[in-house]
Each structure stands twice: as C-alpha cells, then as structure tokens.
C-alpha cells in the first residue's frame, strides 16, 4: 500500500464514520425522544431495527406514571440515549422517576442507566442480573467504544440495588406494577413488567417482532416461558423490539414459530449426527419475510440452540 | 417522523455502502504477510525454533471465514494419511495467533487412532489466522492455515445458561457414528467419527467482574485421554480457548466390540472418568455404571 493509498483509505473511513455517526447523534438528542402514549399513563420510546452497537435507539424503552413515582423500563444503549429519555420524561410530567427497571442484561437496554443515577432512584432487575452485568459489562463497554456513532460515551455499568425472584409488586402511587422474574429464556435474567391498571405487559426481549429473536439463554426455557405467557390475557404488550403496542397473544406467535422451527431442525441435525458448523450453514429461517437481521443473528442462534440441545437425552 | 425515518434509512444505506467500500479497500491491501505478523514475529520460533514447516495437504484445516458466534467457532482437521505403524501423525498443534493465549491445544494420536482427524469448537478473540501443525512420527512438520473473522470470543460472555454447565459439571456424553448408517450421511457427516462431550464452564479467566474489578479465575479442562481396550487412541492438552462444554470429534472405527474410557482433568485438579461399551456392528454405545 502506498502512502497515497493509505491516505485515501483513511479519509474514506473517516468520512463514512462521520456520516454514519450523524443520524445516531441527532436522533439520540431529539426533543421528546419520540415518546408515544400507548395507554393511560403508559409511554413508549419505540426503537428501530438495527444491530447492537452499530446504532443507537434500538430497544423499545418505556415508562409508567403513577401519582407518586415514574418507573422507567430500560434505558437504551448509551448515556446520551438515557439522557434524551430522561429529558423527555421531564417535559411530560412533574412526577419524579423513582424506579429504573432493566428487563435484562443486553447493552441496548441498559447502557443508559447512568443517566438516571441519583439519590432516590432505585435500580431493579432479575436476581441473576447483577452477575450477568458483572461478567459482561466490561466487554460491552469495550465493544461500544469500538464503534463510531455516538454510542461510546461516558457510560458505565449500573447494577441493580434491588433484585427480583418470583414476582414482586411495585407501588407507583395509585398504580401497581407486577415484576416477574422468568426462568432462563432469552437470557438467564429476563424480567417482565405488567401495569395492572391498563393491562399493559412490557415483555422485554421475551418477545421480538420484525427483529429476528436472539437466543442468549435457553431455547427450551424460552419456549416454555412464551407458552405460559401466551396462556395469559393482556390488553396490549410492548415487545423488546418491533412495533408498539402489539396485541396479545398474536404478538407472541412469530417468535414462537421461529424458535419452534429452530429447535426442531436443530434436533434433527443433532439426531442425524450433524456437526455444528454444517448445521449453521444448513438450517434456514422458514418465514424469512417476517424478519430482519437474519444475516446477523440466525447462524448465531443455531450455534446457541445446538450447544444446548445436544445435551438432551 | 416518517420523513426523518426515511432520511435516516437513506443515510444508513449510503453509509453502509461507504463502509463496505472502505473495508473492501482494506481487505484488498491486507496481505497474508500482515495477517501472519504474530506468527512470524515470535510464535513460530517460540514453538518450533527453526525447524522446517511444510505447507501441504498432509492435514487440512477447515474453519468458517466469518465466525457467527465467537465463543463457539467450529473447526475441523482432516488428515491426508491413515495412521499406520510406519507413518502416522503423532501430534497436532492448534493455534489462534491473536488470542491472549495463542496455543489452543496439543492433540496426540497413535497408530491405533486410525486417522488423526479432529473436530472441536474454539473461542476466537479477534480477526486471526487459525493454524494446525501436524508432526509425524518421523519428526516432519506440516501446516494448514485459515483466516477467521471473529471478535470477542475469549472475553465474550459466558453463555447465559452457564448454571446448567456447572450443575452437571463433569458429565460426559460419548457418541459413535455408525458407518454408512445414516440415510443422509453424505450431507450430514462422514462416518467413523466419535464425539466426546464434557459438561464444563471452561471459563477463560478473561471475564472482568465489575463488582470486584477482578478477573474471574480461569477454570478449564486441561487434559482429556481416550483409550479403547486399554490402548490410547486420543489425547488432548487444552487451554481455555476451547469453548464451554468442550466437544471433541475424532476418528473411531473399532473392528471389534470393546470398552472405551475417557478421562478428564481440569485446572482445579478435578478428575472425571467414564467407560462405555461399544459395539461396532450397531454403533451402539452404553455407559457403564
């Protein structure tokens, strides 16, 4: 490579880096951060379908407003994103934020925690969330720092002070949330949040729409939790990714279908003595038109499913 | 809102295109010599001094160009010669040049092994050459190399369900593929392969605990020995670069029924052992209690 080649390459990279970071910065700082009311006192900041770290504003973030307290449900993938959410909440209501609930450990849901860190704000998560954050936090911060686009900022990992096993009630003032800690499913630290007053369920990443489900826990556990949830009635759900609000149980069906097909074909490959690498090439997504990010996540899911299911008797 | 979204979409495509262009330019200029800097700059001499290493087809390494899940990268090595008393592959070294500990493991074979074929799953920390080097019984060295694009495998999070691995620590599973027994054997897998699976978190020691600011101590399987009717057919000395729940595939086509024993030792000094009765005619394997 000549010096002039190098220079051209660098400027091309620099230019594309600048260009790519621009929209992310703008949208992270946008006024009300795109808050939408989906039920009385229930708001959502819809995310967009994109790959973690490559963009901001990915996860669906939410808030529920009681008479005494606001509960924030997930904080986004950077401190800037968390701050934009915090400012939007401030413009919406004078009720203070008392609770920040993380639905699970993934960085697009919790790297904005720091924006809410102050006295009188309690961070809440699944009983296994602190360990998952402890083991993965550093990797997430390093990965975030590698990407252009305003994702890398002064983020740090904020662990929950209060953890949930089973179910707990959270009183926001004339409004009760039910927090449920799930068995290992999408991750080993999935928490769902039900607003009793409106029947709105925040599923976290137990439910994906449009964004291909990402398996980082247990495929058997995930299908088990979805099966249980599908048997319950909710007025509406807020999936971790995809359009909001969504109706139930219809919104659970695409993920159940994808995971069921993935499990059956992976079991089949294992039973026929197939090897992981070939299964990754051979197992296809049955209804590809329903999903985005297949390229990015499907083979990864096959590996995770394979590594779990090969231990079945 | 919709206008902005559309504009962001356009920006997205444009920036993807530019990034792609930039990375193609980069790929075009990245030479094997640059990729091999870690190897030529010290690794090679540390392990093999100035011994001659041939690059030929005595062994063939297969690895994905792009590792979709950096904590579970499947690789396989196929031997170009059968194992005979006269000439056989004694040891295969496996390296991921740019991992924090480049040597994944040393795998030992005997004439009784039949073939020095090997399959396992690795953690690959970053874009790196992966190389297998076979040493024959007469001391010759032969290399096969692949370049794998992966990142974050070694410090990559333990799987979310590592509790499951810990609860069943040391549990083993041993499978034998019956020769020609599979209807779709050609598309699935060649025959004569055994698979030994070991439940173990195989923790790398490179995962930082945010609370204590300490690295979780390494804890991994360091030695695996497999014998058939008292004769060693496979031995592995391994590092944390082997994925959680280590899985080894090796050639195994016994001509007679017999017992196969797998012995495993980890860095904590724990020892696990299993014996199975194997019948070559049916491919059936039964664990011995």
Short description:
The complex is a heterodimer of chains A (313) and B (289). Chain A is 37% helix and 19% strand. Chain A has helices spanning 3-28, 79-92, 107-110, 129-146, 219-230, 253-271, 276-282, 294-309; strands spanning 36-39, 42-45, 61-65, 70-73, 97-101, 122-126, 162-164, 167-171, 176-181, 191-195, 200-208, 236-241.
Question: What does the secondary structure layout of this molecule look like, with pairings?
Answer:
The complex is a heterodimer of chains A (313) and B (289).
Chain A: H1 3-28, E1 36-39, E2 42-45, E3 61-65, E4 70-73, H2 79-92, E5 97-101, H3 107-110, E6 122-126, H4 129-146, E7 162-164, E8 167-171, E9 176-181, E10 191-195, E11 200-208, H5 219-230, E12 236-241, H6 253-271, H7 276-282, H8 294-309
Parallel strand pairs in A: 4-5, 5-6, 6-7, 11-12
Antiparallel strand pairs in A: 1-2, 2-3, 3-4, 8-9, 9-10, 10-11
Chain B: H1 2-29, H2 32-35, H3 37-48, E1 53-55, E2 59-62, E3 73-79, E4 89-96, E5 103-109, E6 118-122, E7 128-136, E8 141-148, H4 162-167, E9 172-176, H5 185-188, E10 193-198, E11 208-209, E12 214-215, E13 221-228, E14 231-238, E15 247-251, E16 258-266, E17 271-278, E18 285-287
Parallel strand pairs in B: 1-8
Antiparallel strand pairs in B: 2-3, 3-6, 4-5, 4-7, 5-14, 6-15, 7-8, 9-10, 10-15, 11-12, 13-14, 13-16, 16-17, 17-18
